[in-house]
Amino acid sequence: MNDDARTDGGTASATDSGASAGALAEVDGYRVLLYLGLLGILAFFMIPIESGLVTSFKTSTGVTGSLPFAPPTGSTFTLEKWRTAFDALGRGLINSALYAIPATVISALLGSFAAYGLTQSDWKQRYKAPVLALFVAGIFIPYQAVLVPLSQFWSMIPLQDALGFLWALGINNDYTGIFELIVTHVAYGLPICTVLFRSYYKNMSEEMIEAARLDGASIRRIYRRIVLPLSGPMFAVVLIYQFTQIWNDLLFTLVLVQTESSAAAPIVLILAGLGTSLEGQDFALRMAGAFIAALPTLAVYIAFGEEFAEGVAT
């Protein structure tokens, strides 16, 4: 009796019910499940990050008196943890940048050179294959397997004596460890950089390289004028990957710098002991420190994100 009369003889409720049933019939069940799954994955990865971020803004009372993912309110909100973390990690940020930036750039350049020689040069294949096999084998050597040989190697190198002119300028000789970290990370990162660049150069236009050869261009000129300008996307991939690996590495820094009290201590060493005391753990301070330590890698990804996506898709 609530149905409205229509000029075509039907009723409004019957028409709405039919339209609703038609709309439901058009819903793709697979797509709904897909979106629900994606939302679940997003929540799985974002909840720990959200919990860490809100914890970094809480007082010690707020951390113990509220759920980990609940935001701070009123008197439990503070910026003091971030200020303390910046003061404690400032020295480590500079020290980490001193070796992470040069080691990343050098390993990327050397990897590009090596990959160019293994793909675009006119060397015979039987010479290229063993060299490539060595690079591939180098990728699978774990950090833990080289820690003792690495320590013994640097104990035999008189690097501190060779850098005496720097110590004469007033620089602390603890920074010998920074130079050792640069060389170590370049050597250890070179295999993966070479393999990544090689996969990129294998798909490069052979006609263009051959045309340059026919015009009399040398192998060095072809690299400088053609290969290097076209390598931007893969350089972005390698720079982001290498910088993240080097910045977050703890094992090599433990062996070569050893202690957070050193003047050359990187941020990962200082962060390991941040917020720990006999009274317990300051979780808010540790969370603030972790986010500060992650900022440079996030900045690198934002700076090269577009080229990174292009290089990964290539």
Report the CATH architecture of the largest domain: Orthogonal Bundle
Q: What global shape is seen?
A: flat
CATH topology of the largest domain: MetI-like fold
What is the tally of helical segments? 15
Radius of gyration: 28 Å
- Low-pLDDT runs of 5+ residues are none
Mean pLDDT: 87
Polypeptide structure, described:
This is Carbohydrate ABC transporter permease. Keywords: Membrane, Transmembrane, Transmembrane helix, Transport. One of its GO terms (cellular component) is plasma membrane. Residues 93-304 form the ABC transmembrane type-1 domain. This protein has 314 residues and is mainly α. The protein folds into 2 domains: 28-77, no CATH class; 84-313, Orthogonal Bundle (MetI-like fold). It contains 15 helices and 2 strands. The protein has helices at residues 12-26, 29-56, 60-65, 80-119, 125-139, 143-156, 159-162, 164-167, 176-201, 206-214, 219-227, 232-248, 251-256, 267-273, 283-313; strands at residues 276-277, 280-281. Strand 1 (276-277) and strand 2 (280-281) form a beta hairpin. Helix 4 (80-119) crosses helix 9. It is flat, with a radius of gyration of 28 Å. The N and C termini lie far apart (66 Å).
What is this structure's SSE topology?
Layout: H1 12-26, H2 29-56, H3 60-65, H4 80-119, H5 125-139, H6 143-156, H7 159-162, H8 164-167, H9 176-201, H10 206-214, H11 219-227, H12 232-248, H13 251-256, H14 267-273, E1 276-277, E2 280-281, H15 283-313
Antiparallel strand pairs: 1-2
Helix pairs in contact: 2-15, 4-9, 4-12, 4-14, 4-15, 5-9, 9-12, 12-15
